[in-house]
Amino acid sequence: MTTRATEPTLTVDELASRAGVTVRTVRFYSTRGLLPPPVIGPRRVGQYGPEHLSRLALIEELQHQGMTLSAIERYLDALPDDLSAHDLAVHRALVASWAPDSAEEVSREELEKRAGRPLPEEDLRRLAAMDVIAESGGGFRVDLSLLRLGVALLDVPISHETILAARRVMLEHARATAQELTRLFRDEVWGPFTEGEDDPERVESMKALSAHMQPMMVQALVTAFQRSLREELKAAFATGD
């Protein structure tokens, strides 16, 4: 579900600093069409917003998954044009879920530094309910792939209990979807491919194919979910339910 865009306020230097890349990288991605052009502000200075920052984070995650720039370009081209920074953060979080554990042990001071804001007790409870953080010793274990998305959701007026209920629903259906897709892949692709074959190279090539399919499956799932959720919300509010 898209949200109203925030006005661009970052210069290219500020954007690069926030994203942890160089200005040269930002400009290179722009020339490749991976980033939309900035809004031209006063004095002809380009201004960037949250969508650019979220898109850079998604590009970084896709590269971490081993995708080439050409593959990333195709991935981004397949995304709907009206995705907000929040929507892009959802894509990034789901793509990151295929990566090895990205959790780190941090102090509360370091957690707030990475979050970019103070985190009172209620915010910590909400982040824990979203599985973004967990108390660990004198600090916290934080899932860095989910932190930006979790912090963005802190400003959404949803109760702690609603977050927990939504989490149960999401986990239940996500697990069922993953099991069905795994069964389909195993029976229809993996089984016929390896049947009667003992060639180790053949098996390894199939494992590589499986790994490369994962980001595409994530993209298809999250895009379908976002569209379905938008349609369901529109229908619910239209009928007054």
- Distance from N terminus to C terminus (CA atoms, Å) equals 19 Å
How many individual domains?
A: 3
Order of helices and strands: HHEEHHHEHHEEHHH
CATH-defined fold name of the largest domain: Multidrug-efflux Transporter Regulator, Chain: A, Domain 2
Task: State the low-pLDDT regions, or none.
Answer: 1-5
Per the principal axes of the C-alpha atoms, what is the gross shape?
globular
Taking all residues together, what is the mean pLDDT? 77
- Biggest sheet: strands side by side, in what order? 3-5-4
Task: Give a quick set of tags describing it.
single chain; 241 residues; mainly alpha; Multidrug-efflux Transporter Regulator, Chain: A, Domain 2; three-stranded antiparallel beta sheet; globular; disordered N terminus
What's the layout of helices and strands?
Layout: H1 12-19, H2 23-31, E1 39-40, E2 46-47, H3 50-64, H4 69-77, H5 85-96, E3 103-106, H6 108-115, H7 121-129, E4 133-136, E5 139-143, H8 144-153, H9 160-194, H10 200-239
Antiparallel strand pairs: 1-2, 3-5, 4-5
Helix pairs in contact: 3-5, 5-8, 5-10
Structure description:
This protein is mainly α and 241 residues long. It has three domains: 1-99 and 200-241, Orthogonal Bundle (Multidrug-efflux Transporter Regulator, Chain: A, Domain 2), CATH 1.10.1660; 103-153; 160-196. The chain has ten helices and five strands; from the N terminus they run ααββαααβααββααα. The strands form two sheets. A three-stranded antiparallel sheet has the order 3-5-4. Strands 1-2 form a two-stranded antiparallel ribbon. Helix 5 (85-96) packs antiparallel against helix 10. The longest helix has 40 residues, at 200-239. The radius of gyration is 20 Å and the shape is globular. The relative contact order is 0.10. The model is unreliable at 1-5 (pLDDT under 50).
